[in-house]
């Protein structure tokens, strides 16, 4: 039984292990002072209260040991407990900063559900993020991109996953299995042919993780539209065709 508890303890996250250590530490000192000075600390709760307040170096002064042994115990608690609690609080702060840095660097994972995934960091996706910010949307939005070093602080409200969207682990890091919508923008750094091929591979990879999610994909060449639909895209945006129509309207409009 003890071996199983020990194994389970060492499998816990570091902060949780440290919390249990401090808990047992203060309980031990509280129990000890209760035994040493039962008149000053009539209950175990009084002893634990004294241990927490003393270990945290708050020192209300409502419970004060009178015996020499009790004062020696207090001295040991201040030296050991103060350091342990300070280390615990510093560890929490460090872990919080680390998690936030991982989120901005795209190295973390997203655990939410019913979110929107936008793939590709470019002027189109940037404009979309700006519109979402201006609308004060509460919708959780995830960006997947392999080129961005760090998500700009302007977009810190959004979540960033760095990686190749055609690789399964990237989709899992963005929790694509629980997404409600995926928008794939074309990679403008590639030729139109290779950009469409990358988009189709991305559709296949994400559709394998979620067979019900709505996928909207930007396709640059008309002959790849059917391939994108066969891969699993629900909506196709032919951006070149749309731009060509707008230019045609501009040319043919008399006014």
Automatic annotation (TrEMBL):
Bilayer-crossing regions: 12-33, 39-60, 72-93
Topology of the protein relative to the lipid bilayer: Multi-pass membrane protein
SUPFAM superfamilies according to UniProt: NAD(P)-binding Rossmann-fold domains, Voltage-gated potassium channels
Residue intervals of the RCK N-terminal domain: 113-238
Primary location class: membrane
Gene Ontology biological-process entries: monoatomic ion transmembrane transport; potassium ion transport
Superkingdom to which the source organism belongs: Bacteria
InterPro entries xref list: K_chnl_dom, NAD(P)-bd_dom_sf, RCK_N, Trk_Ktr_HKT_K-transport
Subcellular location: Cell membrane
UniProt keyword list: Ion channel, Ion transport, Membrane, Transmembrane, Transmembrane helix, Transport
Cellular component terms per the entry's GO annotation: plasma membrane
Protein name: Voltage-gated potassium channel
């Amino acid at each position: 039984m003890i071996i199983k508890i020990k194994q389970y303890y060492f499998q816990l996250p570091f902060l949780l292990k440290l919390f249990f250590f401090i808990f047992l530490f203060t309980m031990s000192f509280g129990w000890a002072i209760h035994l040493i000075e039962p008149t000053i600390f009539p209950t175990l709760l009084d002893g634990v209260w004294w241990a927490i307040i003393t270990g945290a170096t708050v020192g209300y002064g409502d419970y004060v040991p009178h015996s020499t042994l009790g004062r020696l115990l207090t001295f040991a608690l201040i030296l050991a407990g103060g350091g342990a609690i300070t280390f615990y609080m510093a560890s929490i702060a460090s872990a919080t900063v680390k998690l936030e840095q991982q989120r901005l660097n795209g190295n973390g994972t997203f655990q939410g559900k019913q979110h929107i995934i936008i793939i590709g960091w470019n002027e189109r996706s940037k404009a979309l993020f700006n519109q979402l910010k201006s609308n004060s949307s509460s919708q959780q939005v995830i960006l997947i991109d392999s080129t961005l070093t760090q998500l700009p602080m302007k977009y810190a409200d959004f979540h960033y996953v760095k990686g190749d969207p055609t690789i399964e682990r990237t989709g899992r890091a963005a929790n694509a299995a629980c997404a409600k919508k995926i928008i794939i923008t074309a990679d403008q750094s590639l030729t139109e042919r290779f950009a469409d091929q990358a988009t189709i591979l991305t559709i296949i990879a994400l559709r394998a993780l979620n067979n019900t999610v709505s996928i909207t994909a930007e396709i640059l060449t008309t002959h790849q539209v059917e391939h994108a639909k066969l891969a699993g895209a629900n909506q196709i945006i032919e951006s070149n065709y749309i731009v060509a129509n707008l230019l045609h309207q501009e040319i043919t409009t008399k006014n």
